Structures are given as structure tokens and as C-alpha cells.
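Protein BPS1, chloroplastic (Aquilegia coerulea), 346 aa
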Amino acid sequence: MSRAHEGQRPFFPIGNPFRMIFPKETHLSPHLLKLLNSFEQTLADRLKKLMPKDKNDVISFSWMTFAMKCLCEIHTDIKVLITELQLPVSEWDQKWMDVYLDNSVRLLDICIAFNSELSRLGQGQLLLQCVRHALDVSSSLPSSVQLAKSHTSLDEWMQQISAKNTKIENCSSILHALAGSLHSPKIKDSAKGKVLMRAMYGVRVVSIFVCSAFATAFSGSSKTVMSLQVSDKLLWAKAFDDVQSDVNGEIRRLSQGNMTILKELEAVDSSVKKLYPLTQNGSYPTKDGSLKTSVLDLGNQMERFSQGLDFLSKEVESFFQIVLTGRDALLSNLRSHGSISDPKQD
């Protein structure tokens, strides 16, 4: 069993997922064993690439974008495995399908929460664009009216950024519900079923880890950080243990007393705080270049932020579509067999 991280309380869902996934006697054919090992080794390789090369990469748009892209690839890998297993949906156990459908709708809810926060951050950028336009110092110093308007916009931006997003706040309970469902339903005497459930377990663990890191980055609170403990029998256990330890450790360090731990947002916030006093009522810009320097600095930070925001938004949308299409494909297959209807749509 992988080690418990110092200062972290390992999360164990109700029941024993290890016993469910690794029954005492598991006999797999060479073909199935090859498929399982290949999937788990690929998962381990993807996790190794998630290891931050520099602590400054956590939590940044670049790392988050790569993490979401990695999560998309992992969810695609499980679809490929299902096809290779040649295990038609009609042969899935009802409990497997219930878990899959329940987890997928929770992941969709998390994606919606992330998208709402990314949209909110994008709206905040519009306020700062107004500031840049009003304080365009390329030709002449701004008027007192322009300074006043800029001061108001900066004030609105700070209020908006410090406000809580209830959808992000709700992610914590959703993530705990996902973690609580990690103990798989009892697997019947099906070798293919055991391979499928073990692979799905890996996908679910990594999904929780990545989404937990995202929720923390957006909320600025380490309360959403989850430390999952997995069995050493998994080929990807060490890679997961290492990346989780590094990322969660840095998140906890960054979240101490900070409003935001998202690197690019923190950089923009720092620029705003430098510019804010220069636009206060009654002030007038001096000719020492401080205003121009502050405006240019804000513009540079905004460009980096906007670019990172755009890339991350696209990856989150891609993940949403992967989960949604997988869910829809399963439901379509079930309906064609007259099996079940989606309980979430009843």
C-alpha cells in the first residue's frame, strides 16, 4: 500500500476498494493480463508527465492545461480498453452501469463549475481592458475623469475576484461523493469485468485528484485538497503517489493566507494593487513614469492571463465533451437493448 503523506490524512472511502478490485483469486488469461498491464503502464506514464518540473508550475495555467489534457487522454484510453475487451454493454452488471452513470454526471457538474469560474475570470478581464483603454498613456497623461473611471473599474475587479463562486464551493461535496464511490460493486465471476473495474478505478482516482487540484486553484482554499491512498499492487501506484504528494504539498503551502494560488491570477492581482493607488480620487499622475510603468505591467500580465485562460477553457470543454459523449453512447446502447433508462433524466 502506498505511503501516507506527511501532514496529510489519507482518504479512505467507506468499505475496502482494494478487496473489491483485487479478490483473493483472480485468474486472467495472457491476453487480458496484457491489456490490463498495458493500460496501467500507460496510466503510470501519463502520471509521471504530470509531475511538475518546477514548483513554480503549480498551480499555473500551463500545468492545469496539461493536467486536463492528460485527463482527456486517460478517459479516451478507457474507451479504447472497453473496445479491446470486447465486453458489450449488454453484458455489463447493472451496478457497474449505475456507478458509471452516477460518476459521469458528477464529473459533468464539476466541469460546469469550472466553466463558470473561467467565465467569471474572463468577465473580470473586461474590466481591466477598460482600465487599459482609459489609461492609454502613449500620447498624453489621462484626465482626472479617466483616472476616476479606472479607479472604479479596478475596485470592481478586486471585489469580483474576491467574491466566492458557489459552484466552485460545491465541488468539495461532489469530490467527496466521487471518492466515497471508489469501492466498486462486487465483481461477479467475470475476468473481463475485473479488468474493466480495475481500469475504471484508476481513471476515477486520477479524475478526483486533478479535479481536486483545480477546485483548490479556483477557490484558493486547501479544504478541497484530497489525499487518496491506493494499493501498491497497481502499476501506476508509485507515479500517482509521487505526483499527488508534490502537487498537494505545494498547494497547501501556497494556500496559506493567500486569496488566490493561481499563479497568473496572482500576477494580475499584484499589478492591479500597484496601479490602484495611482488612480485614487484627487491624485494626478506625475511625470516620473510610474503610471505608465504600472499600466504596461498590467497589460503584460493580462496578456499572459488571457492566453492561459483561453487554453485552459478549451481543455475543460474538451473533457466535458469526452465525458458527455461517453455517457450518451452508453445510454444509447442501453436503450437499444431495452435495458435501462438514465435515472438522472427520469
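Residues 290-336 form the longest helix (47 residues). Residues 1-16, 341-346 have pLDDT under 50 and may be disordered. ok done for today
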